[in-house]
Every structure is written in C-alpha cells, then in structure tokens.
C-alpha cells in the first residue's frame, strides 16, 4: 500500500486555522496579517458557504458571525491549537432543499387530489364533518430544517405543537389552514446594535402559506420554552386574518391565546384567571414579528425569502397593553435597524 502524499507545510509566518463543519475537518492557511474577514471570505470560496449563512464558534471568543463587530480582528488572536466549529449551509444544499421542498409539495397536492376523487365511504354526518375539518383546518406539511443538528427533535417539537389540543381547537374554530409549519434558522431575523440584540420569534408568509417559528437557541444547543413558542404560533395564526398589528389583530391574538390556554387547563395545566395568558420573563429583547409577510419566495433553510414586504402597526400605544407596547417597541427597533442597513447599503458602506 503506497504512502499518502505528503502535505506541504505552511510558511513559518503563516496562520493555520482548523474548521470542523458537519463532522468534516478543513485546514486553511493564511498570512500572518489575516483577519476574521479573510477567514469568512476563504470559507465562502473554498466551501461555498455564503457569508450570510456562516457562524463560527471559536474557543474563548465564543460566537462570531458576519457582519463581524470587529471585521479587522486578527486571526492570530484565535486559539489555533483547537478547531473552530463552523455552522452554515452551502449554496448547493440550499438548492437541493428547495428542490426537495417543491417535490414534497407536488406529491402532497397529488395525494390530496387523489383523495378528493375517491368515493367516500358511508359515515355519519357528524363524523364526516369532523374528518373534513381535521383535514382542512390544519398544517398541511410539517418539516424541520434538515441542515441543522438533530432535525428529528425539531420535527417532534413541531408535531407536538400541531397536536396541541388548544391549537387544534383554535384552528378548527377560526378555520385556519397553514401550508407549511417549519422552524426558523437562528441566523435569520436577528439584529444587533450598540443597544443590544433583537430576535424575531416567528413569521407568517402570505396569510398561512408558510409559518416559521424560532425553536432553537442561538447556539443551536437547545430549544426555547414550549409555551413561549406556542404563544408565538397563536400570534402567527392571527396573521392569517390581519396583517397589521392593529387593535383588531391584538384582540384576535389574545382571543386565540385564551382559547389555547383554556384547553391546556382542561388537560391538566393551570390558569390564574379568565383573562390571563402566558407572558414569559425573557432575558433578551424579542419581537414576535414585523407583521404579516406577503410576496417573496420561501426556501427551506434559506433564511427567508426575497422581495417580501412587512407591515407594522401604525396605531398609537394609548390602548395597548404593556405586552403589546413592548412588542411594538422591539418591532420599531428592528425596523430602524433595517432602514439603517438599507441606507448604508445604498451608499456602498455596508452589507445586506
């Protein structure tokens, strides 16, 4: 058996960085004055992972992702003796996921048409109506992001939400139908500034075509509180009717939350009063969303679509609750950050 070819040793003043991506180790060499931005560029060229999808977990420094707080951070400041964990989806994987998503949707549509064409067996009127409602007012497809760790755990989380008695009852009562229930990549819809970090918890595209929920923590190592995510789902279901965060939206949102909480109470949960609903104490600033999204294209695992538009509530805060005011403040902050990013991009001074 022939010996493997010898590897060319890097120059004495070169910096060698070892990356671990999806179980595979990659070694990259850089000049001594290279920066973290050079590392991001090299990953995009060598591994075909766009910078917007990159996330580095570096020893001692923690989480780093473009756009970096310090783009000129020297690579020499990283601990080169330990591998850096790289998380991100390649352009080829994104294209494959989009193709797979379209194929699944086509099969589901064909199966639904076949079932409608089949002769119906005799059933009572009540059972037939219930079966029709169950197949109509539900989530037509449930899929996690396969490129993230342990997708089976995310699928179980999403299926638990879909089977939640309160969610099932609310969808039948309000005649809600959702084409695809999926998870949101923690890389998406997160904005940082000197004031802190704001995270979008959910998204409803085209009034129920796709609902995305932020299930995971930022480092992909855990999942958020179930009731927090369920409340986010109630919020997104209300966007099936109202796009803007106006008084009508919030009334419907709170109505759905109370209905879901009431069903949870009947199954063994606890409620304090008729008008109480779950309000978690979070250590981070969150915005449920920017409002109902319309247009654009959804790509499974792609971090959102292009060409979409968002709407936010234009009403004043006089009739809003403390919770609604906090959500509106976070949404306005996200909106300002988006506008500033677009302004800088138009001047050639930033990335989008």
| Proportion of strand residues | 5-15%
Number of strands: 12
Helix content: 25-40%
Strand order of the largest sheet: 2-1-5-3-4
Radius of gyration, in Å, reads 23 Å
What gross morphology would you assign? Answer: globular
Could you spell the SSE succession in H and E letters? EEHEEEHHEHHEEEEEHHEH
Number of spatially distinct domains: 2
Distance between the termini: 51 Å
Q: What's the rounded overall pLDDT mean?
A: 76
Q: So what's the oligomer here? A: single chain
Q: Which structural class best describes the helix and strand composition? A: alpha/beta
Major beta sheet summary: 5 strands, mixed
Uncertain runs: 4-9, 268-283, 304-318, 348-352
The number of helical elements comes to 8
Domain WLM: 130-335
Region (Disordered): 299-352
Biased composition (Low complexity): 309-320
GO molecular function: proteasome binding
Helix/strand layout:
Layout: E1 15-21, E2 24-30, H1 36-47, E3 55-58, E4 62-64, E5 84-87, H2 91-117, H3 125-136, E6 142-143, H4 151-163, H5 165-174, E7 180-183, E8 190-193, E9 196-200, E10 202-205, E11 210-213, H6 226-238, H7 247-266, E12 285-287, H8 322-346
Parallel strand pairs: 1-5, 6-7, 7-11, 9-12
Antiparallel strand pairs: 1-2, 3-4, 3-5, 8-9, 10-11
Helix pairs in contact: 5-7, 6-7
Region (Disordered): 299-352
Biased composition (Low complexity): 309-320
Biased composition (Basic and acidic residues): 321-343
């Amino acid at each position: 058996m022939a010996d493997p070819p010898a590897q060319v040793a890097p120059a004495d003043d070169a910096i060698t960085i070892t990356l671990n991506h999806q179980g595979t180790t990659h070694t990259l060499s850089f000049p001594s004055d290279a920066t973290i931005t050079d590392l991001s560029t090299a990953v995009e060229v060598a591994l075909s992972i766009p910078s917007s999808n990159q996330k580095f977990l570096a020893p001692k420094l923690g989480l780093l992702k473009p756009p970096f707080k310090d783009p000129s951070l020297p690579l020499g400041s990283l601990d080169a003796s330990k591998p850096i964990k790289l998380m991100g989806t390649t352009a080829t994987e994104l294209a494959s996921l989009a193709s797979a998503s379209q194929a699944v949707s086509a099969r589901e549509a064909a199966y639904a048409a076949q079932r409608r064409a089949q002769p119906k067996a005799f059933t009572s009127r009540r059972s037939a109506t219930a079966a029709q409602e169950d197949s109509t007012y539900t989530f037509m497809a449930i899929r996690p992001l396969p490129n993230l760790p342990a997708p089976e755990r995310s699928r179980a989380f999403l299926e638990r939400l879909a089977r939640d008695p309160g969610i099932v009852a609310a969808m039948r009562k309000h005649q809600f139908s959702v084409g695809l229930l999926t998870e949101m990549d923690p890389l998406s819809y997160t904005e940082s500034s000197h004031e802190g970090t704001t995270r979008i918890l959910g998204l409803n595209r085209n009034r129920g075509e796709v609902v995305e929920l932020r299930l995971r923590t930022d480092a992909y190592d855990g999942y958020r509180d179930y009731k927090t995510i369920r409340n986010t789902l109630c919020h997104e279901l209300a966007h099936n009717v109202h796009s803007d965060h106006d008084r009508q939206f919030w009334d419907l949102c709170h109505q759905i939350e109370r209905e879901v909480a009431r069903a949870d109470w009947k199954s063994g949960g606890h409620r304090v009063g008729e008008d109480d609903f779950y309000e978690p104490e979070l250590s981070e600033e969150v915005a449920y969303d920017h409002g109902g999204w319309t247009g654009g294209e959804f790509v499974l695992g792609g971090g959102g679509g292009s060409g979409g538009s968002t709407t936010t509530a234009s009403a004043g805060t006089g009739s809003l609750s403390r919770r609604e005011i906090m959500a509106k403040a976070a949404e306005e902050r996200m909106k300002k950050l988006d506008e500033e990013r677009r302004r800088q991009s138009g001047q050639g001074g930033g990335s989008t």
